[in-house]
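Working notes for the structural subgroup meeting. M.R. asked for a predicted model of this chain before we commit to crystallization trials. I am recording the input and output together here so anyone reviewing the notebook later can reproduce the run.

Input as submitted:
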Amino acid sequence: MAVALLLLTLLLFSLCHALPREAIFDAADVLSDSGFVSMALTLEIVAQTLLQQSHSATVFAPSDSAFKKSGQPSLDLLRFHLAPLPLPPATLRQLTPGSRIPTLFPGQSLTVTSSDNSLVSVNNVKLTDSPIYDDGFLLVYGLDKFFDPTFQFNTPTPNSDSSCSAKNHTDSFDQAIQTLKTGGYSAMASFLGMQLSGVAEQSGITVFAPADDMLMNRIGDLGDYPSFFRRHIVPCRILWNDLVDLGDGTELPTFLEGFAINITRSDGVLILNGVPVFFPDVFFNDRVVVHGVSDVLSPQVNQPHVHEDQEILFDPSEF
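Returned structure, recorded in token form:
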């Protein structure tokens, strides 16, 4: 227990450092050398301010011809091309069409429109096959035009799986942890790895994962860690198409006794305890489903007292 809390403390401490200024200038130099001069200059001017609170980021860089055609973009449009999490090619190719990517433009996200081993497009704009710049924390992809903030995507209806039962697939639990780590959910990944690795056949869980940036100022004392993470995990496997079918007012029990997740909607957006789901089906296999949420899940005003067990994070028998 003490070792687990120490590891989480070190992890969260490491996430508190913003992107170094040198990395941004290095990325700008590479962009300029690669023929993205306009975005290189823009990045040098605005990125330090826009990314000063981010420990990692992905930049989608429009080409010089896009700048020539559209003119100098507004600050909000630039924010729409910055994602506050690292997205290496392996992660992007695992995302299904309809997956949302958060941006620094408040209330706006990008949508994956195609992904396979050779092609990834976002908002129907093809990305370069590999990052122009990648130091593990800051990644830059090239685009031939600007993203359109008004873009709408009609999500295809996937085949429905039973929401509370495991299936006989061969994907491993480790894949879920790796996807979380590479997708900007390192804290949640580390917690799951420390608490669930080695657990035998499971009946399925659903993880509602806040991104690392959202956790920086939301976890206090070490004693808060167990209850904090337990309230983001449901003892039931719920894919996105099953989740959206649940009616307003539905409550999902969690591994924190007395804490439930209440489902509502606002302008068609699924809301969990007041927090929007912005990245459905970040990962799913036979045991685990992960959905990204835009903030940490807090108790509702009328929710009964929550029992915070600080000694046992997970009881394997619960699975």
